[in-house]
User: What shape does this take?
Amino acid sequence: MDNEHLADHHMFRLINEELEQKPFSREMCTRFPPEPNGYLHIGSAYAIHMNYKIAEHYNGAFHLRFDDTNPLKEDIEFVNAIIEDIKWLGYDPKNHIYYGSDYADVICKAAISLIEQGKAYVCDLSPDQLSEYRGTLTEPGRNSPYRDRSVEENLELFERMKNGAFPAGSKVLRAKINMASPNMNLRDPVLYRIIYAEHYRTKHDWCIYPMYDFAHPIQDAIEGITYSLCSIEFKDHRPLYEWVLNELEIAEPPRQREFGRLSLTGVVTSKRFLRQLVEGCYVEGWDDPRLPTIRGLRRRGYTSESIRTFIEEIGSIRTQSTVDISLLDHFTRQDLKGKSVSIMAVMQPLKVVITNYPEEEVELLSIENNSENEALGKREVPFSRTIYIERDDFMEEPVKGFHRLSPNGEVRLKGAYFIRCEEVMKDPDTGEIIELRCTYDPATKSGSGFTGRKVKGTIHWISANHCVKADVNLYEKLLLDEDLPKDSEDWTTKLNPESLVRKKDVLMEAWVKHAGPEEKFQFLRHGYFCVDRKEGDSDRIVFNRIVSLKDSWNKPKT
Assistant: This one.
């Protein structure tokens, strides 16, 4: 986040005002605390960016801390993926990677301290009873019948919980705050629950685990966090965050401040819905290029630079904000257009025989790799008597405004010659056009200084004997509309059946067979493409279309 964007950001202005009061004697320190029970998505990137850039601006530290206090859902696979994704995005926490589970002893002692102060008690209500006693938004809650247990009894019961004396779900430790509070989060919230499961780090050392709202402020205090920056849905949790720190008498306590939550048109960012898509096999996994997960975006070919620029442009979000996904596509085009090699690829080949070109001759033509960046140099492309062009670059009866090839019409081949269509060959049974017979004009070679007649159209091509076949995945939006399905609805009613179109045996320049995973190209007229990092092998390369060449961002809809 550059200084220009920061100056307009409400979070920056708020922090600036608070820092004038000198509330901290330590350096700025922010954190991103993901639960390792899934993969990061584009909405997560906004939160990471916010915390990272605020820390960077004030020359402070940025922490990555895993909120791993629920062994039922967490896995080391997600931990490793989150670390990789954050570093790929460009927000490297370096040696500041921490785990909430490492603070288990400290958090447990904090719970005991609250019990000793009469601020926490062991409750035997069932989960359903807890919900019933909690009340509603319009009616206060009711005190638990176990709320007035003595300190000694609560200490004994909590110790027995810790030692595994009770079944899971039979008891919880609750804060003693105010069951009549208008803020539901302050109605004696649960601090600890009993869970019997192997933790991916601590194994079976613990059978009680703290709730996020209790563990989070303590973890922040341990690490010296100054600002706990989180999305707007945690605003109602802030009073509990502050209550925990106050009751534990934390000096210079961290401050929770909230920013808006990012949603994108036509994509799913809800972790629950993403899980439904993956587990229901509506997509091919968490890294499916149609998903807004960081792994999916990366596999499709979006660059970390374009994602960061996209987030910069969004700027300040105070509440819930929905942003058109085409803005991300726009910045991806802007990022790739000056640094991607432009190659020729033919999706729907139509054979062309240049009848006056020598049968055995192969000519190497020098073609620029990128018309906007000379530093990318040139490459040699073989040209021969038989080539392929795109089927829709020929029209037997051209309509007005069609400037490509037609009978007795002339067109330039990219980086090569003018050709004229002399004869159209058709399948005698179906009438389908199967071949064009053309002639070329040797004087019209590109770069030769030819200044004679002009043509309005230039088309790309592939030499028939000097190309490779590849598979291409063409992606569109996954959802037909922006409304997520209700619990009773079938996902198939919301999914775009054309969200993935696979093209087999696409012809392209032979040298791309040496391209590595995630290498990006512009396919002339087709868009920007990336070598898939997962599919393909030494015999067959697979490309994913990142974005088309057409930029729809901020254009009026017709």
Notes: DSSP finds 13 helices and 27 strands in the chain. The radius of gyration is 31 Å.
